[in-house]
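Below is a typical protein record.
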Amino acid sequence: MQKSSKPTPAAVLHRLSLYHCLLTDWLLAGKKGAITSKELAGTLGLNEVTVRNDLSFLGETPGKRGVGYSIDGLRHMLGEFLGLPPFAPVAFVGSAKVISSLFSFFLVEKYGFISAAFFSEDPNDRGAVINGREVQSIEGISPELGAMGIEVAVVATHPSWVQHSINLLASAGVKGILLLTPAVVIDAPEGVYVTQIRIPCDLKALFHRVSAVAQEV
């Protein structure tokens, strides 16, 4: 696939991942055939022009004017663009209780990920099993992941363990980290990309939007 030579803005990259998730859901639900940019936009609450502009970053897409895009073909191209292998291994770092709660609604295999390893900062979690795999000590990250070649991890530890976890993951060769812990300040090692979900900050922004709408009424 010949990708666009344009650098991909973060907002576009986020929406492309949304399209991939949506198409995955549709395929799992048995939906086949073609999908139009208008239908994609309407389902996700976006502008049709935005969807078409986003898909232009893929280069040549499997779309036909007046017909739309092949659901399976577009999903495949999005996966290639996002750099997703058929099944992407991911390590999870956090207490067994937190990670188990995450797995109660985040079905990793459904979206093409493999829960390859689990590590916890809680000594009481030793020997616990999540998704068929034993939870290891957080101090075992470097030797374990270094041998497995895992490059992406999810961190959901207590805030006091966040930086130590990131450092251990970086030393093990992890290049991308999704941080779910509301730590405001972190030091990302060179060569490691950290995406952070800050629930307290997002809630504050949401309160502002709600109050702004109320003032307009």
In short: The beta strands are 34-35, 63-64, 68-70, 88-93, 113-120, 129-130, 133-137, 152-155, 176-179, 193-196. Residues 10-28 form the longest helix (19 residues). Residues 27 and 72 are 7 Å apart (CA to CA).
